[in-house]
Amino acid sequence: MENLPNLIGSDWVKSAAPQFLDVKNPATQELLARTPLSTRAEVDRAARCGVEAFDLWRRVPVGERVQVLYKLKRLLEEHSDEIAKITTLECGKTFAESKGELLRGIENVEVACGMPTLIQGYNNEDIAAGVDEMMIRQPVGVCAIIAPFNFPAMIPLWFLPYAIACGNSVIIKPSERVPLTMKRIVELVSQTGLPAGVVQLVNGGKEAVDAILQHPDIRAVSFVGSSTVARYVYGEAARHGKRVQCQGGAKNPVIVLPDADLEMSTKIIADSAFGCAGQRCLAASVAVTVGSAKEPFTEAIIAAAQARKIGFGLDAGVDLGPVISPESKQRIMGLIESGKNAGAQVVVDGRAAQVPGKEGNFLSPTVLAGVDPAGELAQTEIFGPVLSLMHVPDVDAAIELVNKSAYGNMACLFTSSGAAARKFRSEARVGNIGINLGVAAPMAYFPFSGWKGSFFGDLHAQGRDGVDFYTEKKVVVERWPKDWTRKF
Ligand code: NAD
Predict the structure, then answer these.
(1) Full domain range(s) for residue 468
(2) 146 lines ligand 1 (CB under 6 A)
(3) Are residues 244 and 259 in the same domain?
(4) Which of 113, 166, 281, 412 is catalytic?
(5) Do 467 and 357 share a structural domain?
(6) Around Cβ 485, how many Cβ atoms within 10 Å?
(7) Domain identity same for 238 and 264
(8) For 406-430, what is each residue's pLDDT tens digit?
């Protein structure tokens, strides 16, 4: 069984960690590898290599830097089946979902290939007679990426391509629960000709994260994970003088109006709620019906939930895989029970899910009706294939419900009314809006924009926000008199 190494400088090295964490296939409990919970000293070594690499890499012209990304795109595409298989084995999602997330990651590599244009500054000639002023962008230094378990390939790629194309060096700290996907991707990064130390990988958990947050040579931190940890990382990184962006958890409502296309809306909402076993920060977790939409939608979503096939993500015909761990399954089952105790009806109960021959953390789609908007189930991020149903009389009440949430990652409206859609788009206080869409995931050239308890920071992941985050702005004011000695 492999004890995973870290990539420090140019070498994959054995970790000196005193503790290792088992990485298990969530569909079978098969042991896949062991993640070292790397120490502060290992982060320190990576940071020092990162500083050296940065000094060289920042001087490489941006047109040359992006050549690495063109090679990376080709390598990721050539190895996409292999990477997707690794993701399915360690994370549990279906092979199609794993391929899909990698493609969304590759889109960020493509956008960052435009860095020669994206990194341009601006200038004014003659701000005073003979004086010019310009803004140029320069890389920040050593940057760290701290990732969650649910998108092992895509989420580090929300940041990595922009960071290196801007001239930074990067330390990636993958989720200790799914370290294998990023190990393979970083092996491919090493084949692009990128100088040693520009991209490094340190496995680990809290100790490694704290070492990153407190290290004086690490200048910027990009974090994605639960809101509790996001809030902590944001505060701790800021306290140590770093720039920081932290994407947190979510509780995403979708609103169904009576004029929505019922068949299409149900299919889309079921995909959103139960796809990736509900372990998506853009998963629909609350469906709010308005007026007469209640009965037909409830009936249709029950049928859609019951029709989904659970199983091992590499098997054909499987719609959703297991949740990440037995502890996660227990936590989700506890939340379902607490919702039931608070008066909700479990109209589809997936808790007894079994997959013949597999000992996985399986939980089939579950639907609860009549959920109390103020109760624990409605307020807590469940992160499993569980959809809560609520009902309100009109669009205003639905928007009020969206705006009361502590989270603000996404909200969606299903309707055929342009006026309702426009009102919703304008008034819902969330960062990503979907109209007749269930997973409003921004393309790589738009910011992944969470609000409220779903995001801590100002510059988001992806696109131009990524360029702003990974560069410092420098302003230069210049005077070049023709005859210096005569004028002064
Ligand atoms: P998590 O917060 O448990 O872990 C995220 C990272 O933080 C990991 O690398 C982990 O090692 C580290 N970490 C965990 N506990 C820590 C602590 N106490 N101190 C320092 N570091 C710590 O999140 P997860 O369970 O891996 O991922 C699921 C969460 O991520 C969900 O809440 C989901 O909504 C969120 N998420 C958000 C987005 C988004 O774009 N907003 C995207 C994906 C996932």
Answers:
(1) 6-248+454-476
(2) yes
(3) no
(4) 281
(5) no
(6) 6
(7) no
(8) 999 999 999 999 999 999 999 999 9
